[in-house]
Amino acid sequence: MTPTSMSHLSNEKQKLSFLEEVIAATPGESHLDICIQCGTCGGSCPSGSDMDHTPRSLFAMIAAGLRDQVLRSNTPWYCVSCYYCTARCPQEIHITDIMYTLKRIAVKEKAYDDSTAPDFSKTFINWVENYGRAFELGLMSMHIIKHNPFGVFKIAGMGVGMVTKGRMAFTPTRIKGMDNLKAILNKAKELEAVA
Amino acid sequence: MSKEKIGVYVCHCGSNIAGTVDVEEVAKWAAEKLADRGVVVARDYKFMCSSPGQELIEKDIKEMGLTRVVVAACSPHLHEKTFRTACQRAGLNPYLSELVSIREQVSWVHTDRKEATEKSKAVISGGVERVIWQEPLTPLKVPIHPNTLVVGGGIAGIQAALEIADAGYHVYLVEREPSIGGHMAQFDKTFPTLDCSACILTPKMVQAGNHPNITLLTWSEVTQVSGYVGNFQVTIRQKPRYVNTDLCTGCGVCQEKCPKKVVDTVYEAGLGYRKAVYTPFPQAVPNFPVIDRENCTFFQKGTCKACEKFCPTGAIDFSQTEEYLQVDIGNIILTTGYDLFDPRRIPQYGYGRLANVFTSLEFERLTNAAGPTGGKVVLRDGVTTPKSVAIVHCVGSRDKNYNSYCSAICCMQSLKFAHLVHERVGAEVYNMYIDIRTPAKGYDEFYQRLLEEGTHFIRGRVAEVTDAARAPGEEGKLIVQVEDTLVGKQRRIPVDMVILSAGLQPRSDAKEVARLFGISCSADGWYLERHPKLDPVATMTDGVFIAGCVQGPKDIPASVAQGAAAAARILGRIQMKEIELEPIRASINEDKCSGCRICNDLCPFNAISFDEERMISEVNPALCQGCGTCVAACPAGAISGTGFSNEQILGQLEGLLLLNIKQHEPAAS
Amino acid sequence: MKYSYYPGCSLERNAAAYHVSTMAVAEPLGIEFQEVEDWNCCGATEYISLNLTASYALIARNLALASKNKKTNQLVAPCSACYLNLRKCDSYMAESADLSEKVNTALAAGGLKYKGGTLKVRHLLDVIVNDVGYDAIAQKVTKPLNGLRVAPYYGCMIVRPKMKGNGSFDNPEYPMTLDNLLKALGAEVIDFPLKSHCCGGHMTQISEGTGFELIRRLIKGADDYHADLIATLCPMCQLNLDAFQGAMNNYFKTNYKVPVLYFTQLLGLAFGMDAKALEIGSELVDARDALSKIGVELPPEPPKKRPSKEELPMPQMPEKE
């Protein structure tokens, strides 16, 4: 059962459960509702041992409606998008896509505990939304200042190496159709907010 | 206006129908609006299939002289026979009654009372129009040949053959390997009793081999089947053994002297060797070897002939050719068993790349005292005893990426393996599972035993088996990576040996064999039973039965039970000496047939033959199952069917659309 | 053979070596690349974590621009993340009418549109191996990489996940196309068990310990198998394994030295091209020592150990997958 609209915002009568909400906000057929809790995802995850809840555990929490705990969990932020879980899941659940959905909901509601990963994504995208391309130096410097100032020393060596080898751009590149891109993205954000 | 006197009976079925359909109104409507069509009485009743319900029909037939009966109730699958028999008791030909479904097709699939009631009226109207065109039919009687063919010599086949043979009737037991025994002959111990598999199997094998009523045809295959229930003609191809069985004593010298050793991929599951001339195992029945032509030095290069030189009775005969045997058979049982899922399809489990990952069948051979290591549980180097073993459940089962069904026996098998490892080498044993499925008698008690033996149960489906160590303690081991879901943490467990409980799947040639016998497979490839709950050993093809794993994964007791059940069915048939066939079948109008033969190849039951002299096609009424394919295909419209003639079908359509009623009421939307 | 080419942000500067070497080998391979006009960033794994419609619209702008090229419907991406984003967007737009409508409404604000399923999104490796073919490539090899032990490293996004109508072109757990390509170039390919394991993506910036551990596993894995170098096909993987190798060593107090090159650079070397022209030397972990092994005579193979009497046979592998 896959509801096709997020009607819980407008229609009081049909308040969706957290499970239904997550399924509705994920593109395609994610099959989250048929999880048998086998643990293949948790077993396959390369960063699984650093998550506070394994992916499987998180899905049990979603099914149990523990919305707050799920959104505060660091699990989706530790997902490296390797898709091992998705490839191996015996129920063909689109696990990685669901992790992205949880990230989006957490960001929208500022429900995350640790802001390192959300801020990284936001900083990255800030450059893209203004220049059309990623800008690593800009991303790294802003991110390190905000989240890991002492880390500067650790990767100083690497930074110097990149510069010496000519692999570091000092200024961002702007695409020609920036206005075009801005119009598209603004429209998209408008549509997303209403959905 | 039809000349018939039709009785219409609308069933309430308690509230199953009456809860959604206004049955009284429907009956009233039928009496009124279909009077012109011949309906002389229309009743509604709580349970038409009950004795009083049936008596209503019988009374009306006798008192009102009804010539046709329409019952509106459940699906014909359930009670068609009930109402036909009731008519027959009252003296009306049973094929002049029609059961239309207003339950499965109306009350169970609609919620709007008004719409459901209107649809019920239309359905009954259709039934009435159809029944007008129905003709009195007599069932066909065909004799039953007392011979039975059992295809597949595993435990299910052996059981079935013995039961029929013991009852005094002849059985042809065909087996494609050199010996009967099947997979059960490969096992060491069987769960839950830990009986030695060979010890309980071999007595039955010997019995089957010696039984006066069983013709054992090993190293043979069925190549052609024609005919119909009670009257099959079967051709069996006996592959050349290159051994004269009249002279062979089974002494085994030929195997000793044969210089060519090959990996035995069948009986030893690829873990051991055999010679080019071999019997698969010492207790083989019959105990005559065969020569594997592909690997025999003489056949490939023209030299050697060591077996011939040393055979004390001169039984080796390289000039043997295949022989064909044609037999008359009354009934057939297919007991061809299963193949094991190939875990190479799951690369992350390492089977084939990592030496110490074994399949379940490989491990059976390892533990078997007659196996390649004499029953010693060792690693692939043939020498080292493992100190830790991981047993992986659900390999290739319960997985939409491979087979979505559960293979039924792997949990018990995995527990059995755990027990054998404890017993033989005292290693640490880990069972990684999603669920522990131990439903039958003694099964959960077996699980308790394994708990008491100190098995480490980890609830988690194994993600990977790898040799890539991350820490010093993992070097040189196989690491099983799994989420221990009961703890909620990912674990990496270093072990020496991994056993994969691979799933069961249909034989690689199951589809072709099914076609040979005219039966169907389910979507998964297992053979299709007539009814999953109430008729698991019969198929849709009369006279062909299935038993054992060919119908779906199951354990030995269930296979034996099914073998016996199929045998009992057949013995019943043989005792009756003849059976009645449904008279619903196609017939070809000679005058209209143009001889185009389009229908010949379309028939799924090979029931249509071509008469070369008269240049027309003919339907064999015994083989015909009344499916209607030829009727639809005939370009000349020359084929019609009793039970589904053009008039009947078009009539029913008219009735459904209410075109038969003088005042055309607006159709229900 | 003509293809639309989507380089992705990394190939502009930090992975310029990948771009340069790809262009260099295009000619002998008979491939003509036409860069998508004014392409934008695909959003990597970042935008999709923030906003669904916007992230797909960002990707779809590229698809819309590429579909304007009437000469070909094949869109090639050398970066695995870009490749995954492009094909996911294309596949989901074909599968979900709802998503397609939203994305196209957004695209329309920029005067563009795209119908899911129009383009065939391919990875560079797929095109080279399947469209050009091993035989054609082997024929162009003038300086075989004999003597070089290479660990083929695929990473995750090139082989996973399988999308509807766009299955992966190689086995998602145990791919072989790069292995076979390297063999065709004459290299000694090691059976690297972690070849499709993840390099961690951006994890070094989120949680140092996690990020560096993922890198350590791969470097250790290649080193355990005595690889001379790792061949990669994704700029993120190259950055992680190469640029962060030093920081990883510092973190774990290890001193691995496994150079990481792009497979197109190795391809170019085998075709007899100049190392500098392939931007070899831009890697932080110096590849020169490893590359000096090319052409060096190897010690004779030790005689194959005869299986002992007790040894049990291995499962018989099929001839060809």
Tell me about this structure.
The complex is a heterotrimer of chains A (195), B (669) and C (321). Chain A is mainly alpha-helical. Chain A is 56% helix and 0% strand. Chain A has 2 domains: 106 residues, Fumarate Reductase Iron-sulfur Protein, Chain B, domain 2 (Orthogonal Bundle), CATH 1.10.1060; 79 residues, no CATH class. Chain B is α/β, with parallel strands linked by helices and 669 residues long. In chain B, strand 13 and strand 14 form a beta hairpin. Chain C has a 4-stranded parallel sheet, with helices on both faces. Chain C has a 4-stranded parallel sheet with strand order 6-5-7-8, sandwiched between helices. In chain C, helix 2 packs across helix 3 and helix 5 crosses helix 6. Classes of the chains: A mainly alpha (195), B alpha/beta (669), C alpha/beta (321). Chains A and C meet through helix 5, helix 6, helix 7, helix 8 and helix 9 of A and helix 2, helix 4, helix 8, helix 9 and helix 11 of C.
Core attributes:
heterotrimer, B: 669 residues, alpha/beta, 5-stranded parallel sheet, C: 321 residues, Rossmann fold, 4-stranded parallel sheet, 13 helices
Topology diagram in text:
The complex is a heterotrimer of chains A (195), B (669) and C (321).
Chain A (H helix, E strand, L loop, with lengths): L17 H7 L15 H5 L10 H9 L3 H6 L2 H4 L5 H5 L6 H15 L6 H16 L4 H12 L3 H4 L1 H9 L13 H17 L1
Helix pairs in contact in A: 8-9
Chain B lengths: L5 E6 L11 H11 L5 E7 L5 H14 L3 E6 L2 H14 L7 E5 L1 H5 L5 H21 L6 E4 L4 E4 L3 H12 L4 E4 L14 E2 L4 E2 H14 L3 E4 L2 E9 L2 E8 L14 H5 L3 E4 L7 E4 L1 E2 L11 E2 L5 H5 L4 H5 L12 E7 L1 E4 L3 E3 L16 E3 H8 L20 E8 L14 H16 L2 E6 L9 H10 L3 E4 L4 E3 L11 E7 L4 E7 L1 E6 L1 E3 L3 H8 L26 E3 L9 H21 L1 E4 L4 E3 L9 H5 L5 E4 L4 E4 L9 H5 L5 E3 L4 H11 L13
Parallel strand pairs in B: 1-2, 1-3, 3-4, 6-7, 6-18, 7-10, 18-29, 20-27, 21-22, 21-27, 22-23
Antiparallel strand pairs in B: 5-30, 8-9, 11-12, 12-17, 13-14, 15-16, 19-28, 24-25, 25-26, 31-34, 32-33
Helix pairs in contact in B: 1-5, 2-3, 5-18, 6-7, 6-15, 11-12, 12-13
Chain C lengths: L1 E4 L10 H14 L2 E4 L16 H15 L7 E4 L2 H16 L1 H12 L11 E4 H9 L1 H7 L8 E5 L23 H8 L3 E2 L13 H4 L1 H17 L4 E4 L2 H9 L1 H8 L7 E3 H8 L17 H4 L30
Parallel strand pairs in C: 1-2, 1-3, 3-4, 5-6, 5-7, 7-8
Helix pairs in contact in C: 1-12, 2-3, 2-4, 3-4, 5-6, 9-11
